Automatic annotation (TrEMBL):
MF terms (GO), sorted A to Z: kinase activity; protein-N(PI)-phosphohistidine-sugar phosphotransferase activity
Main subcellular localisation: cytoplasm
Chain ranges passing through the membrane: none
Pfam family, one: PRD
Name of the featured protein: Ascorbate-specific PTS system EIIA component
InterPro entries (UniProt xref): Ascorbate-PTS_EIIA_comp, PRD, PRD_sf, PTrfase/Anion_transptr, PTS_EIIA_type-2_dom, PTS_EIIB_2
Organism of provenance: Trichococcus palustris
Upper taxonomic lineage: Bacteria, Bacillati, Bacillota, Bacilli, Lactobacillales
Domain PTS EIIA type-2: 530-672
Domain of life: Bacteria
Localization per record: Cytoplasm
Amino acid sequence: MIKTYSLDVMSYFLTSEEVTLNSLMKTFSMSEQEVSDELDNINALLGDTVIVRKRSHLYLTEEGVDVTYQYVLKKNQKLYSFYSPKIRKTLILIKLLIGEGYNPLQEMADYVYVSKNTALADIKELKSDISESIEIKYSRSCGYNIQGHECDVRNTLADSIHTLLKIPAGKFILFEKGIMEKDEIFHLRKRLEKIEIELGIFFSDEVLDALPYLLMGTILRAKFSKQNLDFSDIAHDIKGTKEYPRIKSIFWSYSFLSEMDLKYLTMQVLSSSIIDFREEIIQYSEMNMEELVCGLIKSIEENMAISFPKFLDLKKRLLMHMKPAIYRLKLGLHVYNPLTGQFMEKHHAIYLVVKKALRLFEDELRITFTDDEIALIAMIFLGEIYQTYEEKLQPVFTAVVLCRSGTSISKLLLGTLKEEFPKIKFIDVYSLRKFEAQPPAVDFIFSTIPIHTDIVNFLVPSLLDELSRFRLRKQVEEAIESDASKQAKEIMAYLAELIPKDKMDLISGKVEGFFEDKKLPVPLQEKNVDLLKDSSQITIVHENVPWDEIIDLAFYEMGNRQSITQDYVEECKKIFYESYETMVIGPNVFLPHAAPDKGVIEADVQILILKKAIHAPNGSEVDIIVALAPCRNNEHVPWLLNLNDTFLNDEQKNRILESNDMEEVLDIFRRG
């Protein structure tokens, strides 16, 4: 017999964006042991592991969402007898955006199971929440209606549907309320999967799950709305592409769609995909996309003192990304990047550099990149930086990354993991669909979603912070130390050159047997990349320093060490005073530098700690200057990334600024 609150716990999982151990304990007044017992009870009841626990976070598996919903539906007939305020307002907004004509207040109140007063309060809040370009109109005799520019209305509808889809049961709400039909969504998805193959475009799992619902929202709006749709400035470009005839054909069953509707739907599809590089697709009427992308890469190289050896691969990847991004921006469609805030905080320096470099596109195309779009492009560059710098040690183990998100996020995660685990050869990033169709034969899987597999796997966030990295390193070490075959594999990799090939299997078996018997751990080597060798590379400045003298002072000691030429100093002055706003490596921490071929004799660094902060011409405060003479082959990049982490840690940065002891400051930097 199922416990009385098990159905409530299941519903809680289905209707919450995030579930933690603490939230369950608080919501249901249970102890940690009672929660654990309850989860075991639900998993046993449903005949599978539908709920997975990773530390304090709890997740419904992909299959678990459907299984749990069907069980709750069988017992309760419907998932909801009431809605949270957020879901309630979202449903009211969707009804207004899709519905034809006016909606009486009582009808909307009944629709979301509340009183007229509550529905009225929700509508008042919606009026202040929605875009200024659309408006909720009221008629005493008829009720409520939405009016505004049709593109803005459709974008708001897409945002509202996406809000519902963020919770596990979001799609079921759309079905329960009769907004959409399950069969129609199924057929739309199958058609999208077909054109994905035919046109050489790629949808991430995350996008493919949501896109049929977003397209159906547009179709329903087009069916019931009499408003004219006009985005003629780019509609002509869409009609001229090879993709348009094929994409519009998937909507053949909706005969009421106008040609402008079909162009808009095509734009939604293209802006959600990654398009394989073809010259005829990426051209715009009066500009050369390839030239702009090359200019973007060169700008990043100059501002970050780095060169990208795989220039052509990076260019191709950016070309594939920029086409749909430009479509989105021209149409006003919103990209959903849940990591933007974290990325801007953790990698603020590269975010600013990319933001400035993107002005090339903004000036040429008369568009403005949003924070979400900038962060996605910055992720591509940071992922490339991580992959550019790899240890020369031969990898011992193999792994894949399983990620439902798009290319920018998944490639950044892949690059981060490669940099973090040089002994692991990361074969590729897998979508969930690819993983299920072609299970890889690897030692480890690093996944952003819970999965069922016999392969050792680690659940990781899409963006790894320092705490996540520490925990993950520990988990990987423990996985190796607890597995005799993996310990033997690691030892044999180190001894491979010393052992005859015909003896490898024999010795490997004996080594594995030794670890199986003794359970002795094999210590993992730590990387140590550091330009900061001693305290003489740190200068504590107590005097006021004029802005126009700060670069000469910053590079003075490096000149004495003969690490750089005077020409290099002059080049740094020229670049820094023109572009100092983007030459940052932390809050109020500036990074003057130039390319190595401008006069670097030996890679070096000098850090100035200013006891009396100076102010740049734009008013920003300058606390620390990191004068850099970069390596020629980017070996300095991991050290810079670690330095960035140090400056983002308020406690560590404050200790650096407060100290008067150069040895103490050196120790803070080394401990990170």
